[in-house]
Amino acid sequence: MTELTWPRARSRRRIARAILATYAFRLGAAWLLALPVVHTIAASGISRFPEGDKKLFESGGLYLLEVLQREQATLFAHLFSAAGLLLLFSFMGLGFDWLQLRALRSTPPSQPLSSDAAWVLPRLVLLGALTWLVRAVLLIVTLTLAMTVRSYFLTAADERIPDLIFLGLLALGLLAQVGISVLRDVVSASLADRDIGRSQAYLRGFGLLMRHPLSLVTRYASSGTATLAVLAICAAVVAQLDVARAGAWRTGLSVALHQTAVLLTILLRTYWLSGALRAAELARR
Amino acid sequence: MPQPRPGSAARGIGTVLATLLSAAVTSWGAPLAAERFSVGGPNAPTPVASYTLRARLDSNTHAITGEGTIRWVNASAASTDELYFHLYLNAFKHNQTVFNRSAFTRARSGRVSQHWGHIDIRRLTARELGGADLLPHLEQHSPGDPLDATDLRVALPSPVAPGSVLTLDIAWESVLPDIIERTGFSRDFHFAGQWFPKLARLEQDGTWSHFTFHPHAEFYADFGDYDVTLDVPEAMHLGATGHRVEETVSDGRRVVQQRASGVHDFAWTAWPAFEEQHARILETDIHLLYPPGHGRNAERTLDTLRFVLPLFNSRYGPYPYADLTVVHPPRHAGAAGGMEYPTLITTGGAWHASYWSRAVELVTVHELGHQWFYGLLATNEQRWPFLDEGLNSYAESVAAEALFGAASASDLLGFSLSSEALRRASMQLEPHAAPLALPASDFVSFAELAGVVYSRTALLFTTVANVYGAAEVDAALLRYAQRYRFRHPEPEDLLLVLTEVLGEPAVKDIRAAIHQGHGVNYVARDLRSALMAEPRGMLPAAEAGVAPASAGGRFESRVDVHRQGELQFPVDILLITASGEHVWKYWNGDGRVEMVSHVGASPVVSAVVDPKGSIVIEENLLDNAVRQHPPFPVNTLDRLVYAFQLLLGVLAP
Asked: Min CA distance, B652 vs chain A (Å)?
């Protein structure tokens, strides 16, 4: 495979718009999902304390458990309804992934946005559904295999042996899930190409992964590792910030850090998608 | 020595008699093991039921055949013409025993054995009664319950007078069940608890404290000296109550002799795969048995003991025995874990538990605490489980906080939980307040027992310590533990000591919680503020000196604080004005409602009852505050939006 380089010929403004649109969509969707839960917590009485909901974050979790226990019926109801919305929003997120892919293309799109969207989005939805199906099957197979193999070692004198075997098989399953993610994104990049059919796009994506597994997985993994690092750093800094302590600035900084982290994870995904798209474009030539 | 309780002349006389008898019966026999108390000395144990036993384990059939003698002293003030034996293993004999018969009250595991266990007495004679064979007089089932055989009565051919000794020669066979709770076998692991015929306890007034073995209940017995010889396959590693005095190996068998003085039970375990560590903490030899792969758990267990044993020594009096055996059962025998026996405790947890949780440390703290609240203070666990589990849960909370701080129960990925938070969660699973002093069998479920006996008791004592002073509660529990060491205290004994140290007002609430199940909830309502009006109307003349002062643009604010429930803990009330001034008020808890007022240049915008969170036994903490303009919970919104944003990224198809 030729080197996966960042495409030069593209509009940076268009990419920025696509990234911001993705971020705005995530923010809006997350806001809608969170709002009923937040209202329940506000109604629980915690906001009437002088510290407000900072009490939920006090060390020891006394008030957090109190709220969760007293409001559990309402919270569960909200979470069940949120699960349905989450599913819907996850599929809607495909459109924003595609927006990024479209913005990242090395050649300007020949069709208007609406025409392109009408053509590619059904294909992406089908790919998304297939991906979930394959992921679910893989998960079931992994768990079944891991539990079955573990059961053969349960009589080992050292209890670590069956558990480590179980974890090892889960890790293999996780690797396979990563492979599916890579394949999905490469196929997504190919599906955006209007010159080839759906099955050709799948075959191209699969062929790319077979021919260049190391470079593709490395790029995906580097993006994934950086994402995990961003999240870990964010968690550590926010923990040090300790919003339970007095000072509205702590809350403000926590919001800023969280949103920066989300934006960075989107940027890192864009970095990976650009690589997947570049690979698909090279394969087309 | 127990103090006579006011208004209980009969018990007072009984106590005096018991004192005299104690002096008499402690004169026989020398101490069996090198414990740190002198027989006949102050606060020394009175050996009432002593066992000299020899038992052999068949690891293939999981049967224990045993024989020996029981030396029993009638330490009561009355003659008795009967004995009661607890044959706890018969709880696992079939699925119609009291222990097993209901699917809704089964014990913690909720399971029934697949391999039935039982215990049968094969020989029972009494030397002092002319060698009378008592076996024909052994009733075949628990009183009034033909399907249960855990509580058997033996009629004696002639009465045994107070102070008299009865030496019983006994032989029996026990078959261990597969472990569903505490005792039994799993593969080649064996844990023998309640494995021998055990005499019930004769109270001072001559009544037997005996009971069928209920799934919620634990045990109760007299102190005594144990000399037990165990014969197990050579490959077995063995741990047992007491001190090892001899160990021989021959013909493929390991024969171990254990002695223990001043204990009221004897348990042991045998498993070929045990790994062992031995340590000495202060003057106690620790014998730790654990499965392969649990090295980190073993380290954590020993570290915990190094911290908590001296702590408990200082709080409840020194641990008096030379040995403490700690058994961490393997995963497949996990139901044997988390249990206490004299000088032997079982812990538990997966091999990885100590990498990410405090489960190993907390179970070690809890079971060690039982060496005082059960072991040395040998309360009736069936009749008043709160005296052992409840007080011990409080002791565990205090020790866990000393060990780990506010995150005393868990601290994972920046999310911490305190013991109080978990105990409140447990208490609120069963929100109706039942008396703490209910018998174990009166609770409708183990969850209710856990919520009331473990959690509500611990929260009550934490509340009392927060309100009346931790030092005072510590002093009271130390006095209680010292006064009733090697005795069998009852709730009134505890209340007596608490009254001596804390005074009647505090104990009134404790008594009400213990006996009536009373609770409390404080509610802040109706915060109002108004600009005070200038005096006007037909006011007295200014020269009379009684004219009201000018309002001067000041505000009058008021909040109503309601007390729901019967407990009356005094509380602080914090008022915060619009200018940020903090005004502290105090309510002694009398009455149904307190109207808390404040006059000042700035209106009160927020009020909190018990702002320091002292009254952790409150039914609802969330109604303690009132505020004029509650803010939107931005911190919650921040976390939830962030979590959903990340989820949307992860779940993208």
From this structure: 5
